[in-house]
Specification:
alpha+beta, 4 domains, four-stranded antiparallel sheet, three-stranded antiparallel sheet
């Protein structure tokens, strides 16, 4: 049909050129020739072709007299607008976004779910003839499937089974891809928006869980440290332990604090450790200073109590 149309167009063009040459050059004014010239001009204008360019990723679904003719492209294509039309189709990958859609879970929680899918057209003819608007049809299908599957799940299952939802959406698109002329590459849920109060509760629960994990880890580390220290201490003699203990007390007494008060039992222990070290040297001085500090503290406490007693007697 296309070849015949081109032949008619070429014939009309030749008639117009020949008639024009006969009239203006040979001065032949035959009425029949003028009629043929007029008809040829009408046919020429009605069949005036249009050169259309289809890029490598484009195709054109061509209709002739309203009926499907062929799929044109890529490259330059000669079309006759008088009786031919075409629908351009882009073969590149498309992204379909459902945008956040409200849905209600099985346990009556309203959530907003956003899903996207990636498709590529493989049969331009089916895309044009079988479905009016491919992207809109697929988006509506995804929205309906999302609401159906969410209604069958409680909230916790919905948060945990996202991959199952992705698989379900992908399989639903697969069911119509052949009949509608496209190939589905991927379908997935990209976000699930919860109500503010539920979101806050989940954040608090997560923070509590992380804090519990932190405490557990610190406790386990402390236990390991104690066990290691116990193992090391079990291999030391009493004299070595006494030395380490008094050395720690000495470092404390040399600190920035101008008062260090220890209970009596600790002071007695210092004396005992000092005696085990031989009662000589700087550690004996540390033990004596500890005892003196405790005695001074006790004296100040007794003086304050005595002062309070005198004040009570005066008041009475």
């Amino acid at each position: 049909m296309a070849d015949k149309t081109v032949a008619v167009f070429v014939a009309a063009l030749l008639i117009v050129v020949g008639a024009a040459y006969a009239i203006f050059s040979l001065r032949i004014f035959d009425p029949l020739l003028l009629i043929l010239l007029g008809l040829a001009v009408v046919v020429l204008f009605s069949l005036s072709p249009r050169l259309v360019e289809f890029k490598e990723y484009e195709r054109g679904v061509v209709f002739r007299f309203g009926k499907f003719s062929h799929v044109a492209g890529p490259g330059w294509v000669l079309l006759f607008p008088a009786f031919e039309s075409f629908t351009p189709i882009d073969l590149r990958v498309r992204v379909l976004d459902t945008h956040p859609q409200e849905a209600e879970t099985q346990d009556n929680v309203n959530v907003k779910i956003d899903a996207i899918s990636y498709i590529r057209i493989t049969d331009p003819k089916k895309v044009v003839l079988e479905v009016k608007n491919l992207e809109q049809a697929l988006t509506n299908m995804l929205v309906g499937e999302i609401r159906n599957i969410v209604a069958k799940m409680p909230l916790e299952m919905l948060m945990e089974k996202t991959e199952d939802i992705n698989t379900h959406l992908f399989s639903k698109l697969k069911e119509v891809e052949e009949s509608w002329g496209f190939l589905v590459l991927k379908a997935e849920v990209v976000s699930i928006e919860l109500p503010p109060d539920i979101m806050e509760a989940r954040h608090k629960a997560r923070a509590a869980k992380e804090y519990k994990t932190k405490l557990t880890t610190e406790a386990e580390a402390r236990q390991v440290s104690i066990e290691l220290l116990d193992q090391a201490a079990s291999k030391m003699s009493d004299k070595t332990l006494s030395y380490l203990y008094l050395d720690a007390l000495k470092k404390i007494s040399e600190g920035k604090s101008n008062k260090i008060i220890f209970p009596l039992e600790l002071s007695r222990l210092a004396n005992l450790l000092s005696s085990k070290m031989g009662g000589k040297g700087e550690y004996e001085d540390v033990a004596r200073q500890l005892v003196d500090a405790y005695a001074k503290q006790q004296k100040q406490l007794m003086d304050r109590q005595a002062g309070l007693g005198d004040e009570k007697e005066k008041e009475s």
